[in-house]
Amino acid sequence: xxxxxxxxxxxxxxxxxxxxxxxxxxxxxxxxxxxxxxxxxxxxxxxxxxxxxxxxxxxxxxxxxxxxxxxxxxxxxxxxxxxxxxxxxxxxxxxxxxxxxxxxxxxxxxxxxxxxxxxxxxxxxxxxxxxxxxxxxxxxxxxxxxxxxxxxxxxxxxxxxxxxxxxxxxxxxxxxxxxxxxxxxxxxxxxxxxxxxxxxxxxxxxxxxxxxxxxxxxxxxxxxxxxxxxxxxxxxxxxxxxxxxxxxxxxxxxxxxxxx
Length: 260
What we know:
This protein is of the alpha+beta class. It has seven helices and eleven strands. Helices cover 30% and strands 20% of the residues. Helix 4 crosses helix 5 and helix 5 packs across helix 6. The longest helix has 21 residues, at 190-210. The radius of gyration is 19 Å and the shape is globular. The model is unreliable at 4-20 and 76-125 (pLDDT under 50).
């Protein structure tokens, strides 16, 4: 009976999502883009039409084509699933022609427990949550739950803008407050640490211009490819403007504002 209930919930979500004509594009760095339709490749570039109608290009080599095609087969690219705790998550297995929604809902694949869970719809965001803290009392971003950012348009534009700046190793998540995005960026040298910090500042300024009153701050975690902490920061409009205008040396800003 429970399996049937889960299957019906999954089916309902899929039906409600159908009018959006969503097509999930999986990238090799683990991030995703939500498009209106399948991308088109021209001269090594993938033309992508985002759900808001914006057209963008990325290198076709960045796309995990095999996974993208499998997941979107049968229009299940954005299928969702309700877990035992009532959380909405991505469907835990890739549907095929021989699978049914009941198969998806009843899977016991161990990988399900490690998937990033989507936030429940909420107007209050994550305020008030008891997050793990660093020794200095800041929220420890290295262990903060990775959940998709609540505003899809902002998440997509953040990804598009950073890629336009030449960054590919980053992920966008929900921050500790409803209007606070969490940006995780991989950096492997001192130079890329400062460059990434400046890019995060430019991104916040850009988002403020594009989405007035919809995003307030960026929580930024800089990590190495070995998952070692390279610094974490909280950027608001004032500090982002300061960095964006290069009124302060990035190294000086790093020392003054790094959270440890």
